[in-house]
TrEMBL record:
Residues 1-19 form the signal peptide. It comes from Zootermopsis nevadensis (Dampwood termite). This is Sorting nexin-21. GO terms for biological process: protein transport. It is a peripheral membrane protein. Coiled coil: none annotated.
Length: 357
């Protein structure tokens, strides 16, 4: 009798142990699955942070820039040359800043300004000078697939520094700027010292909100390229304007919020130019992005372009065979709310009219 009871107890114990072991295995599998999900979430967050602007790279490169015979764009040609440079994998030591959310550390890409090259410019219509190429990228776990580049000279950096020091003296007190030299501007040592000073200036600016939001920074970063792009748009040379606007959008989108006015205006110009150029296939991609971002826009100056954008997308969707009924319903809803829909200028015309005022 007692032997059978002992056997029964042992059997029950073994059964319980087996159940416990099974529960532990399930728990371990669940934990492993959760860890994989967390890892996947972190990777997706990083990917979204780096790839917020759409990847417009074409089959054999990053930017398309086909200059017609007798047409030359110095800024565009420079962007085109850097678009062909192979991307370097970013090391773990440049992972960026961290933020704590729900008890977990999420890595956020840090914005990086780097002077990657310098060249001597000696042209008939310009005084001999050194032009510095600045690459703007987000450093994170993955390399930034869409870095942006600008080319500026010493006088451009000096103007930015002096403008900010005049407007925000308290925020520029501890920053030193490379001094002018009477001789040796083209010496490697001077160029290296100035490059480091330019990087320090830009890195300091983006850490201060007032400096980052200043109009003189926006003008420094994209004033030249935007002016040239608008000139090409006036001349109806949209193939020349597109790479300038695309590079500008990439740069501004890294520095400012998704719906910042300068970002949205550049995106609208890019959509309008891509739509007007029959040789590009990027219109749909940028138009989709613009529609998504406009859903949360409240800036009155930007909203004037919303109806023209919707109407452009209706025509574009129709030409591509996409369902346009949702866009048409949105236009009807705006019309019922008293917003002018009929007789509006095209997106391109609205932007051109704004640029002329």
């Amino acid at each position: 009798m007692w032997g059978r009871v002992n056997c029964l107890v042992i059997a029950i114990s073994l059964s319980e142990i087996h159940a416990l072991n099974k529960e532990e295995q399930n728990l371990l599998q669940t934990m492993a699955s959760n860890n994989e999900e967390k890892k996947s979430v972190h990777e997706e967050l990083e990917k979204l942070a780096l790839d917020d602007e759409p990847d417009t790279r074409l089959g054999q490169g990053t930017l398309s820039f086909n200059e017609a015979h007798g047409v030359h764009s110095q800024a565009g040609a420079h962007i085109r040359s850097w678009a062909k440079v192979p991307r370097v994998t970013i090391g773990e030591d440049s992972a960026g800043t961290t933020d704590v959310t729900n008890g977990e550390i999420l890595t956020r890409p840090a914005l990086k300004f780097e002077v990657v090259s310098a060249r001597t410019v000696d042209q008939n219509n310009e005084k001999k000078h050194v032009a510095y190429t600045v690459m703007v990228r987000k450093d994170g776990i993955q390399p930034d697939p869409n870095p942006a580049v600008i080319e500026r000279r010493y006088s451009d950096f000096l103007e930015l520094y002096e403008s900010l020091r005049h407007e925000f003296p308290s925020l520029m007190t501890h920053l030193t700027f490379p001094k002018k030299v009477l001789l040796g501007n083209f010496a490697p040592g001077v160029i290296s010292e100035r490059s480091a000073g330019f990087e320090a200036l830009l890195e300091h600016i983006i850490t201060e909100e007032k400096l980052r939001e200043s109009s003189c920074l926006t003008s420094f970063l994209q004033g030249r390229e935007q002016r040239e792009a608008r000139q090409w748009m006036v001349a109806q040379r949209y193939d020349q304007a597109i790479p300038l606007l695309e590079n500008s959008f990439r740069l501004l989108n890294k520095l400012y919020t998704d719906r910042h006015p300068v970002v949205m205006l550049t995106l609208c110009r890019l959509v309008a130019s891509c739509n007007a150029d029959p040789t590009t296939t990027s219109a749909e991609r940028f138009a989709d992005l613009a529609l998504r971002r406009y859903e949360a826009v409240s800036d009155a100056d930007l909203l004037q372009f919303y109806v023209p954008l919707l109407q452009l997308c209706v025509r574009l969707w129709w030409s591509l065979g996409r369902d346009k009924r949702l866009l048409e319903a949105r236009l009807e809803d705006l019309k019922r709310r008293g917003i002018k829909v009929d007789g509006c200028p095209t997106l391109l015309d609205a932007l051109m009219a704004m640029d002329q005022t």
